[in-house]
Amino acid sequence: MKTVQRHDNWLDYIWALTRTLYYFLVLPSLGFIALASIIIYSSKGPTEPGAGMGFFFTLVWCGILLPLGYRRFSITRRRRQLKKMVALLTSDERFSPQKQHQVLDVGRGKYLGIDTKHGTILYIHMVKKGIVDVMGLTMDDWTDSELEGGTLRVKTKSPDLPELSINVHPIAGRELLNTLGAMSHNSYSEPYPKEPWPLHVGIQSRFVEYEHNVVVPQAANLA
């Protein structure tokens, strides 16, 4: 697998700190001021707020709506990207999971799908801007699975990605955990021995790189 910079640099840490401060400190304060502006402008007092106060309240509302609007846009775009990536790797012959066997964690840019018919697993993780993990597994490529709270983990045989994890509702996570346990006792045949599922995913991931202008380390490793 091609070596990529997975860890955040100092700019990433600053951006993460800025977002944390905004959502936990700035946003509640702006929300309180915005509520006060609604009360002021909805009341019929003897005096109207001045232009300076109106400009201030406009800035407050912009400080609320613009970041939240951008976040909504980012989540929608990420969801669309994940679905397109999954579509590039889905086929009736190799990977076509049922709806209840798929998890989409848009907030963290992750997807996990389990095909009980073919015994195949697809994992996608938008690690950071420009880097996406795309990994296909058969029943021979993972060793164990566990559910801890709301996180489902799958232990793999890959030293580069030894553990796949995704946040999921505990009830759905328990169902997926039981599904993986049941699948581990079954035998699945590979319909294309010359291009097994993990290799197929790695090759097809080059289309993910092209379509989304990202680096997929698993695909780069095949070059």
From TrEMBL:
Keywords: Membrane, Transmembrane, Transmembrane helix. The keyword Membrane applies. The chain crosses the membrane at residues 21-41, 53-70. It comes from the Bacteria. This is Exclusion-determining protein.
